[in-house]
Amino acid sequence: MSCLHCGAPIPAGSRRDRRYCGNKCRAWASLERRKIGSPPPPGWQHPALASDNPTLRTAAEQAEQLGQAHGWDRSTVRHTIDGLTAVLESGPAQRVPLTAIRARLPTHTPILRVAEVLTCLGLLDNDARPAIRSWIDRCAEQLPAGFAEVVRAWLQVLLDGDSRARPRSPDSLYAYFSFVRPILERLSADHSHLREITVTDITAAIEPLRGHQRRNAVVALRSLFRFAKKRGLIFANPTTRLTAGRLDPGLIPLTDTEIRAVEQATTNPAQRLIVALAAVHAARTAAIRHLTLDDLDLPNRRITIAGHNQRLSELTHRALLGWLAHRRATWPHSPNQHVLIAARTALGTSPVSHVYVQSEMHDHGVNVDRIRGDRILHEALTAGPDPLHLSLVFNLSLTTASRYAKIAQRLLDDQLEQHAAEQ
Fold first, then answer.
1. pLDDT tens digits, residue range 159-197?
2. CA 88 remoteness from chain centre
3. pLDDT digits (tens, 9 = 90+) for 338-370
4. Is the pLDDT of residue 415 over 80?
5. How confident is the model at residue 249 (pLDDT cuts 50, 70, 90)?
6. Cβ neighbours for 268, distance < 8 A, ≥ 6 positions apart
7. Which residues lie across from 303 on neighbouring strands?
8. Are 125 and 98 in contact (CB under 8 A)?
9. pLDDT above 90 covers what percent of the chain?
10. What pLDDT is stored for residue 1 in this prediction?
C-alpha cells in the first residue's frame, strides 16, 4: 500500500486504515484539498462491510450497530469484525460452535462480543461445557479416589437437582465445597474411603470450629453424607445426630475500630454508595446488586429496595449522584440497567457479583451484613425494641424483627443495670 500524497510505500505493520506515510504528507494533502475545495477522502471501512459473503457483511453491520448502541470503542468493533471474518468467511451461513470460536480466534479477539453478534443473527451453537462442571471435576481430582467419586456425584446433584431437591446456584456449590474440603483432606490422611468415616471422626474434625464456621461445616457435611447414604455409597450416616444449632445472635453495635475501617474502605463512588445503602437503608448485599435505575426516583427523593419503597436519605442521595456521575463519565452508553456496574458488566445486562460488593469491605475487616445489622440495631435502640416498627421500616420478617428487638432489649437492660451499679 502506498501513500496517497507522495506514493511512497507505507511502513510494514502499520494500521490498516493508514493512508499517508507520515504527518508531513497528511498535512500537505490537507492543504491541497482546502486550496481546491475538495472534500476529504471517505473514512476507512472494514473490508468485511463490503464483502461478497452476505452472511459476513450482515454480521459486520450488526457488530457496528451493537458497538454504537452499547458504547464499544473503535478497537473493540474492529477486532470483533476481525473475529467474525475468521469464522464466517470460509463458507455459507451455518451455525458456528462456540468451542470452535474459542479454538480458532486469537486471545486479543473479544470472543464474548463475537458470540453476542452471532447470537443476534441466530448463528451461534453454544456447545461449550459450563465452567461450573469443569470446576466440579477439578475439585474431585484433588481428593483421594475413595472420596472423589462421591464428592463429584454430590456436587453434580446439587447443581442439577433431583426429584426431591431443587437445583442450587454455583455460588452455593462453591460455599459447600469450601466448608467440607479441609475436613475431607484431614480425614483422607487416615481413611481411604468415605464409608470408613465414623461419628468420632466427624466430631473430632469439627471440634476446633466455632460460630458460623462450625454451623456452615455441619450443614455441608450433613448434605454430603445424607446424599451418600441415600445413593447407597456408604453404610451409615455419621452425621445423623449432628446438629448445627442456632447461633447466638449476640450482635453488638459497631466498634470505633470498625467504624474507622468502614471510613477507610469508602474511597470511591461505588463503595460510598454501597455503604450508604447498607448503613442508612439496611439493604442486603443481594438487594444492592439487583438495584436498577427504575428503582430510583431522584426528583421525589424515593428509592425502592427489594420491593420496599422508602424515602431517600440525604447521605444516600449524595452518594447516588456521585456514583451516577462517575457511571456516565466512564460508561456513557452502557445498556445495563443495574445501578452498580463494573468493567465486566458494563457491556452486558447482568448485575455485579457478590464479591464486587463485599471485596473492599472484607479487605478492611468489615462486611456489608455487619453494617446492615448495626443499622437495624441502632433503630431498635433509639426508637424502642418494637418488632412491628422494625418490620415496617426495614421490610423485615416478624421473626427477624423480633430477634433484633430481643437483642436491643438485652442491651438496654445491661445499660440500666450498669447505670444502677454506678449509682
1. 998 877 889 888 889 989 999 999 999 998 889 898 899
2. 32
3. 999 998 888 888 899 888 888 767 776 778 888
4. no
5. very low
6. 326
7. 296, 310
8. yes
9. 35
10. 67
Pairing of strands 296-297, 302-305: antiparallel
Mean pLDDT computed over every residue of the chain: 86
Which residue do the cell numbers 451409615 mark? 236
| pLDDT (tens digit per residue) in 96-110 | 888 888 888 887 888
The single-letter code of the amino acid at 393 is V
Digit-coded pLDDT (tens) for 384-402:
889 999 999 998 888 888 9
Spatial separation of the C-alpha atoms in residues 298 and 321, rounded to whole Å:
9
Q: Which residues lie below 8 Å from residue 119, measured CB to CB, with a gap of 6+?
A: none
**CA dist., res. 272 & res. 275, Å (int):** 5
Domains of the chain as residue ranges with CATH: 1-40 (no CATH), 47-125 (no CATH), 131-230 (no CATH), 256-369 (1.10.443.10)
HEC states along the chain? CECCCCCCECCCCCCCCCCCCCHHHHHHHHHHHHHHCCCCCCCCCCHHHHCCCHHHHHHHHHHHHHHHHHCCCHHHHHHHHHHHHHHHCCCCCCCEEHHHHHHHCCCCCCHHHHHHHHHHCCCEECCCCCHHHHHHHHHHHCCCHHHHHHHHHHHHHHHHCECCECCCCHHHHHHHHHHHHHHHHHHCCCCCEHHHCCHHHHHHHHCCCCHHHHHHHHHHHHHHHHHHHHCCCCCCCCCCCCCCCCCCCCCCCCCHHHHHHHHHHCCCHHHHHHHHHHHHHCCCHHHHHCCEHHHEECCCCEEEECCEEEECCHHHHHHHHHHHHHHHHHCCCCCCCECCCCCCCCCCCCCCCHHHHHHHHHHCCCCHHHHHHHHHHHHHHHHCCCHHHHHHHHCCCHHHHHHHHHHHHHHHHHHHHHHHHHC
